[in-house]
Specification:
With about 160 residues, the chain is α/β, with parallel strands linked by helices. It is about 40% helix and about 25% strand.
């Protein structure tokens, strides 16, 4: 069983999602199933089938989160001795040299990654190109949209 790196915040978010699923979502769907069951014939009861499908989704997510928590290797970037290099959990401010704009990325585990929040998977093309690099370095990344070039402006461990 491979350990999955995760940030302190990522673990906190997983635990709160698990609590919500167990204590709020699960009881709601059980109630919906009971309600739909009371309507009689289950073969043609769309509400019942939808509720059962929702229950299956909740249960599979609960199992997935429990698995992630069991395999979590929590990395607190604030407690790691750093030498200015980009590491897992660090926040990197880069200038996109092609678009001439500045972006901050945080390198996180797979389950935490969310490009809309600039949380990128450390094994993604950009993540892999950044790991181990220093402030001032210029990196070139092959992305699905073509080659992009970035200059590392700042590396933070927050």
């Amino acid at each position: 069983m491979d350990k999955e790196p995760i940030t302190v915040n990522g673990l906190k978010n997983l635990k709160s999602e698990l609590e919500d699923l167990k204590n709020i979502q699960r009881p709601k769907v059980v109630e919906s199933i009971a309600e739909a069951r009371s309507h009689g014939d289950l073969k043609e009861n769309a509400e019942y089938h939808a509720a059962k499908e929702q229950q299956a989704l909740i249960e599979s997510r609960v199992i997935a989160i429990n698995d992630l928590i069991a395999r979590a290797n929590v990395i607190d970037v604030t407690k790691i001795e750093n030498n200015g290099k980009v590491i897992f959990g660090s926040t990197v401010k880069v200038r996109d040299l092609d678009a001439n704009k500045t972006i901050s990325y945080r390198l996180v585990g797979q389950d935490e990654a969310d490009i809309k929040k600039n949380l990128i998977f450390f094994k993604s093309p950009i993540g892999k190109a950044l790991i181990g690099k220093d402030k001032g370095e210029i990196i070139s990344v092959n992305t699905p949209a073509g080659e992009r070039n970035f200059e590392i402006l700042e590396v933070e461990y927050i």
